[in-house]
Amino acid sequence: MAFRTGCDAIWCRGFSLSLEGEALEWFDALPNGSIGDFKSLGDMFKNQFAACRTQDSMVVDLMNLKQGKDESLKVFMDRYQKTVRQVRGLSVELALQYVMPALRPNPFKDSVCRTPPKTMEELRQRAADEMLVEEMKQNYQREAQEAKAERTDRKREG
């Protein structure tokens, strides 16, 4: 619907026709006479619903995504998947293509290079499997450090 008029009252009424749900309820609850002009209505609307606005990412954001030096695979994959969801119209093939250069060198990246995943679900599952391995290694290292500390303490005591 297009309005070819400079009349703010018509613009404001037309704006209300584009609303539904919570936005329409908000508009209907505005006190009579609270809208000065179309610009102020727009400002009021933006202020009310600014938190609901989603920020779309672009493919370049995905291309620039890199796993940090000390970033766990879990934290990186959460960030990667969030970025993928925010890129409108992104094909699965392109999303999968950009994961490999984003990963730092590690066994998971080697696995993805040898056998690229065909679906996002396959990528998620393989990453989840690798996360379990990472977690087991961290637990083993922590237990080994604790055992070493206990041995050192016993030597000092004895």
Describe the structure.
- Residues 15-92 form the Retrotransposon gag domain.
- Residues 143-158 have a biased composition (Basic and acidic residues).
- Residues 135-158 are annotated as: Disordered.
- The protein has helices at 8-17, 21-28, 38-49, 59-63, 73-86, 92-102, 107-114, 120-157.
- The protein is an all-alpha fold.
- The termini are far apart.
- The relative contact order is 0.07.
What is the CATH architecture term of the largest domain?
Orthogonal Bundle
Which residues sit in consecutive blocks of at least 5 with pLDDT less than 50?
A: none
Q: What is the CATH level 1 assignment of the largest domain?
A: Mainly Alpha
Overall radius of gyration: 27 Å
Topology, number of strands:
0
Instruction: Describe the main β-sheet briefly.
Output: none
Q: pLDDT average, as an integer?
A: 86
Task: Note the topology.
Elements lengths: L7 H10 L3 H8 L9 H12 L9 H5 L9 H14 L5 H11 L4 H8 L5 H38 L1
